[in-house]
Design brief:
elongated; 5 strands; Arc Repressor Mutant, subunit A; mainly alpha; 10 helices; 2 domains; 3-stranded antiparallel sheet; 212 residues; Four Helix Bundle (Hemerythrin (Met), subunit A)
């Protein structure tokens, strides 16, 4: 996690997190929040000074952000925040949508597979309005696990790391949607599960395409 002041950042590294990874996360958050805008230069020396580190972890962070599509690096000119992020994000959301629907269909064919009990718990929590335990994986991760397809799960994880914005969050609607989806999966209904996931994502993505 990060303790921050306006003039200087003091890094506190989570277990197993490298300085470059922590810096990348901070810069990513600043881009997503709009504090760093498209075309803005990311000066290694300035960033290194603000974090109190050498340029090496800053370069690692910028390389990671370039791979994720957040940053453009041009030789001899340095790094800038990507100016095509909106277009790329729209395309990634379209890819994510298709993969999520496929994951729901495969999960239903498996009737929840190795995480059937966890999906049943989703339904029970929705019924009783009980809080979700901290250790519980996010619902969409459960669906990907239930699909039983490691390649699909890796593809979804990769896309989700790169998706910058566009997913709304209505807690009440999400609880209802997740419960209905979990039931369709456990009932072994691929068509219904795919349809429900499609509708769920359409609600989450409302307004995204008009902004891109």
């Amino acid at each position: 996690m990060l303790a921050t002041t306006r003039s200087r950042l003091h890094l506190v590294y989570p277990d197993g997190e490298s300085p470059g990874g922590t810096i990348a996360q901070t810069l990513r958050d600043e881009i997503l929040s709009g504090r760093r805008v498209g075309g803005e230069r990311l000066v290694e020396e300035s960033i290194a000074k603000s974090f109190g580190v050498s340029r090496v972890p800053v370069r690692e962070a910028l390389a990671q952000l370039q791979a994720e599509g957040f940053v453009t690096i041009v030789r001899y000119r340095g790094a800038t925040v990507s100016t095509t992020l909106h277009k790329e994000n729209k395309e990634l959301l379209e890819v994510r949508h298709g993969l999520e629907v496929l994951a729901a269909q495969l999960a239903a064919k498996n009737r929840g597979g190795s995480v059937a009990d966890e999906l049943a718990a989703v339904i029970e929590r929705a019924r009783t309005q009980a809080p979700t335990p901290n250790a519980t994986p996010p619902f969409h991760d459960l669906v990907a696990m239930a699909a039983g397809n490691d390649q699909l799960r890796e593809m979804l994880a990769g896309v989700n790391r790169r998706v910058a914005w566009g997913l709304g969050h209505d807690p009440g609607a999400s609880v209802h949607d997740h419960s209905a989806l979990a039931a369709a999966i456990l009932n072994g209904s691929p068509v219904q599960a795919g349809f429900l996931m499609d509708e769920h994502l359409k609600r989450d993505e409302t307004g995204t395409h008009s902004e891109a």
